[in-house]
């Protein structure tokens, strides 16, 4: 087990590697990884005492507390993204999210990705009723979308293809923030438009990202539903 402890400490700057999970891991997968890892690396498991185990156990706990909270996880992911951008060649940085404005766009997009999907989930429940909404399917679709959007925003070709969409999303988000909370209809319409753009981005052919047919059909169905609802509001 000492070797495993040393391996975790060697990747201490990457919480996903610390817990041995993928960047698109669900909340349940993060918790399971934490329980699994914390059990074997607990300092009491080592006889005689192995001091690095204490540091490893604290690191695993810190990784879980960060990734287990949606807000702190988004901040952490943003920091990881910023570091990866800095490590790119300077020539690539000119076009690929290399300045503060691009990072601002990305951060705004990440916030919308979390908030608007929850809004979309609530909208579907309100329209179809909670009994007609498959929460498991929505959970898996959210993970799938995060995985696709992870590629879209971190690949040079994809980022270039969706940059105009990101700009439009940013502008809509600013409009949404400027609206009065009492302007319910206006806020709903803007939220629906934001959701539609985010879903449409996933289906763009010029990104080179292949979306599974089942996911594509589900997304097209939701986009159609959003168009129908928008006309009725």
UniProtKB/TrEMBL annotation:
Cross-referenced Pfam families: DnaJ
Cited PROSITE patterns: DNAJ_1, DNAJ_2
Listed InterPro entries: DnaJ_C4, DnaJ_domain, DnaJ_domain_CS, J_dom_sf
SUPFAM superfamilies for the chain: Chaperone J-domain (SSF46565)
Domain of life: Eukaryota
Residue span, J domain: 14-80
Protein name from the UniProt record: J domain-containing protein
């Amino acid at each position: 087990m000492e070797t495993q402890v040393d391996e975790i400490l060697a990747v201490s700057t990457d919480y996903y590697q610390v817990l041995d999970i993928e960047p698109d891991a669900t909340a349940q997968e993060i918790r399971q990884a934490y329980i699994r890892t914390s059990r074997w690396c607990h300092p009491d498991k080592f006889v005689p005492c192995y001091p690095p185990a204490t540091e490893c156990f604290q690191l695993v706990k810190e990784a879980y507390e960060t990734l287990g909270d949606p807000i702190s996880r988004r901040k952490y992911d943003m920091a990881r993204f910023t570091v990866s951008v800095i490590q790119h060649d300077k020539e690539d940085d000119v076009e690929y999210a290399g300045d503060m404005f691009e990072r601002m766009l990305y951060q705004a997009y990440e916030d919308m990705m979390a908030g608007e999907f929850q809004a979309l989930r609530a909208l579907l429940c309100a329209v179809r009723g909670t009994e007609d909404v498959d929460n498991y399917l929505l959970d898996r679709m959210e993970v799938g979308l995060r995985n696709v959007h992870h590629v879209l925003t971190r690949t040079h070709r994809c980022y270039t293809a969706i940059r105009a969409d990101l700009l439009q999303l940013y502008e809509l988000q600013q409009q949404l923030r400027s609206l009065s909370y009492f302007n319910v209809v206006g806020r709903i319409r803007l939220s629906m438009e934001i959701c539609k753009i985010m879903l449409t981005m996933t289906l763009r052919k010029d990104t080179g990202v292949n979306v599974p047919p089942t996911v594509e059909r589900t997304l097209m169905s939701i986009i159609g539903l959003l168009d129908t609802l928008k006309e009725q509001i």
